[in-house]
Amino acid sequence: MGESSDSVSVDIDMLSFEGKEYVLKTSRGSVSVYVCGDQEKPALITYPDVALNYMSCFQGLFFCPEAASLLLHNFCIYHIDAPGHELGADVISSDVPLLSVDDLADQVAEVLDFFGLKEVLCLGVTAGAYILTLFATKYKERVLGLILVSPICKAPSWTEWLYNKVLLNLLYFYGMCGVLKECLIQRYFSKEIRCGVHGAESDIIQACRRLLDERQSLNVMRILQAINDRRHDLTDGLKELQCKTLIFVGESSQFRDESVYMSAKLGKKICALVEVQACGSLVTEEHPYAMIIPMEFFLMGFGYHRQPHFTSSSSNGSSPANPLSHSCIAPELLSPESLGIKLKPIKTRVNIEV
Known about the structure:
This protein is of the alpha/beta class. The protein has 14 helices and ten strands. Helix content is 39%, strand content 17%. Mean pLDDT is 84; it is low at 1-17 and 310-354.
């Protein structure tokens, strides 16, 4: 485990969206954590995919009123960005050693130590899902449950490894160029939303392009290199996990097969798979409303419920249940038959210009 919180210094900046950004200087380098909500509440940790930060990866989900009444009412959210991916990040010095996926998982433990968090729920997307799953296998006693979006769990195939090498070369020689952004957008989104209405590019894709422009290419290289160099096949570790797990994957996601594989290895007693139709890997942005009902059923097993009349993201009304006293989730609650193996999302982001 990383150093204790006593050895971790912190710089604090106030951000405008009802939260604080903490820049923690850990034994594995600096990491940004954006904290939303009452820190007296139970903790939900998030970790985004490659080249994304908490805003570009999770704002679609957390801006849903239904998600706010479920997640922000019950939890304090700790958004962990990969090193150098926070808003306004500088280029990480070449003198700073490259981090491995093990380092990134251990860094999550240091974040928990700093905030005094003993047990948490985790929400991660693809690369972030891998890091949080690795964290769960290394620190089993600290993870109550996992919500994973288009997760990966195996070492990279030759195809993935070579493809990522191409992306790394693009980043090194050309930076966040148009070709690279197109490759990343194909990673995140389905063809349906990439093409938009009548062939016009949708607002969400245009916003993603702008956000990718803000990333520092060399910082993105570091994270992509760590993910591409992962050597852990988490399959054996999954067999030892006892925490309940909810997996979302888009029907069009390039990681769909691996997500289905991971679900099968975890087994129906502790894991449910929700496949979202007409959706890519980034379900949190493309079809966030498809996640609400499955998450609500999942969290009910821990004693959490949606606030009936949600008014703000700060602590309002009664306190949520203590996660230490949660009851075991019934297997039938997490079964694909209960949650629905495929959910057709409500179309909430169709913009038609007349």
